Amino acid sequence: MLLGVSAAAGICGAPAQKANAPKLKSSLPAGVGEFIRYRDPVTENSLVRLTSPASASLLPDATNRFISLKGRFLIFSSDRNGSFHPFRADLRTGALAQIAETQSLRPGSLCLDGQDRFLRLIEGDRLVEMNLLGRKTRVLADGISAFSEVREPSEFVVVRQKRLEYLSRSGPVLAEDISDWCLVGPDGAACLYRRELSSDESELWWASLAANGTRKPVRLASGNISNARWSPDGRSVLFLRSSLANGTVVSDIRQVSLDSPSETEIAKTSQFASFNCNDDASVFLGASRSKAQPNIILLLRSPERELTLCEHRAHEPRTVTPVFSPDNRRIFFQSDRDGKSALYSMNVEAIVEPSSRTN
Known about the structure:
5-stranded antiparallel sheet
């Protein structure tokens, strides 16, 4: 526990400081379904392994919505039936259930809508929508390699044949010759996308989504950058920049504004290979690439302080992609430490200020 740090900064201080926090269930069941509770050998913190490492289980992309607070379930993909299909894990009972049969599922594409009614995914090159209640499906578009939902329901920005398009609007293509990734901002006014320069370097761009906008796309950053995500207000972008120093890869979290694309350093990290943040970007969660200390680390933005939460021991740290739950009470990550990739969770509400979000 981090003591003596302001709760307003996102980290709780002494227990008395969080006495007024909402009272929700603080732990996942263990011994039900495939859930297994264990103590981390480094920190003694309690974790739950959610899925068996006998088959591969993968979380969706970290910027997608795949955890439901209201329904208390998590969406993931698993190849336990021979190929990857979408699954649902009930976080109250531990029950796992396959949602649908899919062909050529892109595991990272799974994404819930804001009301937990629909699951969107890419199957082959088709953007598919599944009704989680009636299990009916419909194809929204063909030739799609990436998508991101705009604020309006069922409005999407997509990557189709390396072009960034607004799916439901006619008009000019937003950008061309881009990577298979896009991310609409929280206010639905802009969309991030990438261009690959080499196997290690890329460019990060943004395009306006205004219906009659004439502003040209703007390049925000380039180089060995990864894990781009919007700030909560949608006016700036956070990302991880890596470089080589004395033969060791070092990484720091950077921020760039849409209004003035000049980078500022937010925090140096313990060799983060991937990172995420809580709902106000005051606390960061990272997976270290250090071979000596392959850990999940909590990083306080101001002041820069780190706290080791647990080991991940994944063979490829960049795939760990740790995330906060929408209410900041738990973290989720994946690791092949015990065999094939499995899903893990840890309660952090004793050290991270909970959010008031309910979905």
